[in-house]
Design brief:
Elements lengths: L2 H31 L8 E3 L5 E3 L31 E5 L5 E5 L27 H13 L8 E3 L13 E3 L2
Antiparallel strand pairs: 1-2, 3-4, 5-6
Helix pairs in contact: 1-2
Main location: membrane
Subcellular location: Endomembrane system; Membrane
Pfam families: Ldl_recept_a
């Protein structure tokens, strides 16, 4: 395996470990807080209740906290505060949603624009992103599984050519 392939493999391994750690953190938060995911045909209310998407902006308080009717029939695309972003609705109307709903893995907007141009690491916390960035900049190499460092090589010099395959 060439040096480039080993570097790519090392980076993929690091990304997988970071992703797995974040996935477990998110699962734990969901379990602790009792927050469930809404299905694609549902709207997620501000109180985390799921209602049918067709109930969103129907003039009735289906969520119980009125979040399904908040900012539903605006004729312009400007939201009242910077804490919100606008989504286009049918008939040239707009609705405003809290920015926390952007890139959260849910299609909250009718046309899905809240999930467009999102980072593949959108759900990673800031600390994990900082660690990933430092790892990528440090050119840290890791010997592949079933490989070990050659003798007389420093631990921080795990360049692929310094690794030996072990049986």
């Amino acid at each position: 395996m060439g040096a480039f392939c080993k570097l790519v493999f090392s980076l993929m391994l690091i990304l997988t470990l970071i992703y797995a750690a974040n996935t477990e953190y998110i699962r734990q938060k969901i379990f602790e807080e009792g927050i469930g995911r809404c299905n694609f045909y549902q709207f997620k209310c501000g109180n985390n209740k799921c209602i049918l998407r067709s109930y969103h902006c129907n003039g009735r308080n289906d969520c119980g906290d009125n979040s399904d009717e908040l900012y539903c029939s605006m004729s312009g695309s400007k939201c009242p505060t910077n804490d919100y972003f606008s989504c286009r609705k049918p008939n040239n109307y707009y609705m405003c949603l809290n920015k926390s709903r952007k890139c959260d893995g849910y299609n909250d907007c009718y046309y899905g624009e809240d999930e467009v141009n999102c980072s593949p690491f959108g759900h990673m916390d800031t600390l994990s992103l900082m660690i990933l960035e430092r790892l990528l900049k440090s050119k840290l190499y890791v010997c592949l599984p079933s490989y070990e460092m050659k003798q007389n090589k420093k631990e921080n010099d795990k360049m692929p050519e310094n690794c030996l395959q072990i049986n």
